[in-house]
Design goal:
It is elongated, with a radius of gyration of 43 Å. It is built from 17 helices and 17 strands. The chain is α/β, with parallel strands linked by helices and 624 residues long. Strands 6, 7, 8, 9, 10, 11 and 12 form a seven-stranded mixed β-sheet that branches. 49% of the residues lie in helices and 19% in strands. The chain has four domains: 68-221, Beta-Lactamase, CATH 3.30.450; 234-294, Helix Hairpins; 304-486, Heat Shock Protein 90, CATH 3.30.565.10; 497-623, Response regulator (Rossmann fold), CATH 3.40.50.
Length: 624
Amino acid sequence: MENKEADNPGTPGNIQNSEMDEKVSDIDDFYQNMTDELKKQRNLLKERLEQQELISEISRSFVSSGESQALINEAIAKLGNYHKVSRVIIFNMDYHGGNVNMMYQWSTDNHILRKGNFDIHAFAKSHFPEKLYDSSSMPFVSCSDTTKSTIDDARELIVDDVYAFISVPLYVEGFLWGVLVTEQCHTPRHWTDNEKRFVTMIASTIAAAIMLDVYNYELKDAITKVTATSKAKGDFLSVMSHEIRTPLNVILNMASIAKNAEDLERKDYALDKIINASKHLLGVINDILDMSKIEAHKYEIVPVKFNFEEMISRVVDIINSRVEEKQQKLLVKIDKNIPKNIVCDDQRLSQIITNLLGNAVKFTPENGTINLETQLLGEKNEVCTIQIAVTDTGIGISAEQQKNLFQSFQQAEANTTRKYGGTGLGLSISKSFVELMGGNIWVESEPGKGSTFAFTIQAQRCPLSESEETNEQTETEDPSVGSKDQKDTKINYSGHRILLVEDMEINRTIVLMLLEETEINIDCAENGVQAVEMYKENPGKYEMIFMDIHMPIMDGYEATRQIRLMEKEQNETSGQQNRIPIIAMTANVFKEDIDNCINAGMDGHLGKPLDINAFMEKLHTHLF
């Protein structure tokens, strides 16, 4: 009997077999696909584990001891060998020059470094942000075929045989420090996502190493600077100890000599030495205070109107005694084109000139010559550029020594202080003052041929008043008029009465003894409360008040404010406008101290230790 179903494919048996075969085939495909996917995932996992191991190895090398440059070169070599690429290069961005510097490079033996004109700097700036603080979103640029690339200028890389690349930015402290470039030569290359990811991870690791290197460099630099500063200040303190103790030794011992001396000439000799040592000590203290204010950026220039030639004359008078002592010759030349009156800080200007002349006297041997020359270099919109130069025939300064001259706490040589004295602050202070007055200072010198210290300042021209023009004409017609030699400096103040407010008995005694010959009447108060009460009892009794600032119970500021308040009430009652001059007399000598005195209602300021000439000038100005 024939089986008809076997020959008939449409029979139910054949249909079931066909469906079964299809299902088996689908299952085989599914398992094959699953096997392929598992194999792919296994290979990917293996690749990532290898990459992670390589990154860990590189990271461990960076935290170990070793030269950072060698470690980074080793890291990019591992990256290049792992990906079997042609070149790996790290460029550093040069923002100032608008280009890049090749910092690290690796290439296979048969690939030389690029020589083309591809602008890495422009490429990096156009594709990577200059600041990036979120490293989790690290940007990158990749190209699989530069011959078909749509990236700007990428085709220029073909000149260097670059057919594919991955470029990743390197951020240090959030700023674009440079670029890591992985390059494939000869042939295009399809970069997988895993390869791109791995290059960015290596780049981040290297960027962290570079940042650590930067930190270490900055730390070493900071330590070096701190050590140098500490040494300089240690040397400075040693110098200060010498500079302060030396005059103190003179003052103490000469005071004993003067006290026990029966011979008047011996007593006068000792007193002269005490005065000179005291002036030196005051100069040292002033230098220290000036430098501390300058370093704290709290120094300001106080422009005032003054007679330029008279200021030069005062400075020369101060320095002349030292010139005569060393039998030197001091020549002064003043440019007649410099305005008679100018506006700038006369005290700081005279301090600079005094310092330069003092140095010239110090470093010039006996019978040497010193020249002080002033010159008007130019004028624009009534602002004059004035140059002042001091030239000596002294020991001179070498080019190497000149590098230290205008630095704080330093002199030309380490033994200069021991041999010649001085704090090593004068030129540094002078430089700061000159720059505050819109100028600059410099030195021209050779060993054994003397030195020239010159500086410029900017000063406002100030026209002469009618009275000044008249006086100038009178002096021209009769040079003896107004001559210092004919001026009577001894003025009798009998009949005048002033109030001296000072808490320290020795300071009151000094003023009383200094003014004894003037026959002026002086009442004393020991604090602000006493001063206010004495003024309140008889407001018209005193013609002038000299007021200390720091006193117990009530300071000079508050005492002045209360006196001014009483004065205002009296004037409102009487309908008059009386104002008693109040002059501050204090060791606080900075600009803000003077401003505080004026703001409290005072009319002037005298610094301690007292300059008797400045004291007498204030006295004469307000009493006559």
